[in-house]
UniProtKB/TrEMBL annotation:
Domain annotation Thymidylate kinase-like: ranges: 14-200
The protein, known as: Thymidylate kinase
Family: Belongs to the thymidylate kinase family.
Catalytic activity: dTMP + ATP = dTDP + ADP
Entry GO terms, CC: cytosol
InterPro entries for this protein: P-loop_NTPase, Thymidylate_kin-like_dom, Thymidylate_kinase
UniProt-recorded Gene Ontology molecular function terms: ATP binding; dTMP kinase activity
Gene behind the chain: tmk
EC main group: transferase
Annotated binding of ATP, by residue: 16-23
GO biological process, one term: dUDP biosynthetic process
């Protein structure tokens, strides 16, 4: 059957604790979406823009810096504001499908649930940073921290170096948020790479159908 329907672009983000398989699944999904006719733009948050990449370096690689959770949160938000204005909003306006490695949900889990900032404060600052640009769908790859942590190797970045107990709080935070926000779909990331990809594709297909209504 020939596909005659115009492709509906999508803003999709991946989230979950480090080592859950975000990069692996994002690459597979990018290929599939391309085959479906989507013009895919990849981005990572923090990062992608020049300013955002510098902030990313500060946040993840300057381990000598002792950043307070509030400082961390604001730096992530600043990088995100730049990403929205320079990359995400223009891509959506041009009819492209955006796949973003992490987004606002990560701050709510990491600096809110796991580091103790008031969730409503993080959400309020988040509102300013995203300026109404929110994902149509967030794939939350859920994996126990004791499975994810050993996957990270020896060279841990500043966030990964916070350890397994911290990752546990992040994971719990993500799951609590998923109960609140219907655009967040939890995928069991303890399955095989192929099985996870199948679950992600079916979540994407379902969301595209909902958006087409
Ligand atoms: P993230 O981007 O979330 O940090 P990655 O995609 O980089 O995660 O995966 C972390 C490591 O785990 C990589 O070495 C990857 O090959 C491996 N991995 C990813 N998905 C699976 C899976 N379903 N089962 C086993 N290993 C996996």
């Amino acid at each position: 059957m020939t596909q005659t329907n115009a492709v509906r672009p999508l803003f999709l983000s991946f989230d979950g604790i480090d080592g859950a398989g975000k990069s692996t699944q994002r690459d597979l999904l990018t290929q599939w979406l391309g085959e479906q006719g989507h013009d895919v733009v990849l981005c990572r948050d923090p990062g992608t823009t020049e300013a955002g990449e510098r902030v990313r370096d500060l946040l993840l690689h300057r381990k000598e810096l002792d950043l307070h959770p509030r400082t961390e949160m604001l730096l992530y938000m600043a990088a995100r504001a730049q990403l929205v204005d320079d990359v995400v909003r223009p891509a959506i306006a041009a009819g492209k499908t955006v796949l973003c490695d992490r987004y606002l949900l990560a701050n709510i889990a990491y600096q809110g649930h796991a580091s103790g900032l008031e969730l409503e404060d993080v959400r309020s600052v988040g509102k300013v940073a995203v300026d109404h640009v929110m994902p149509d769908l967030t794939i939350l790859l859920d994996l126990p921290e004791d499975v994810a942590f050993p996957r990270l190797g020896k060279n841990l970045d500043r966030m990964e170096a916070k350890g397994v107990a911290f990752m546990h709080r992040v994971r719990e935070g993500f799951l609590k948020e998923a109960e609140v926000y219907p655009h967040v779909v939890v995928v069991d990331a303890a399955q095989s790479i192929d099985a996870i990809q199948t679950a992600i594709r079916s979540a994407v297909t379902k969301r595209l159908k909902e958006l087409a209504r």
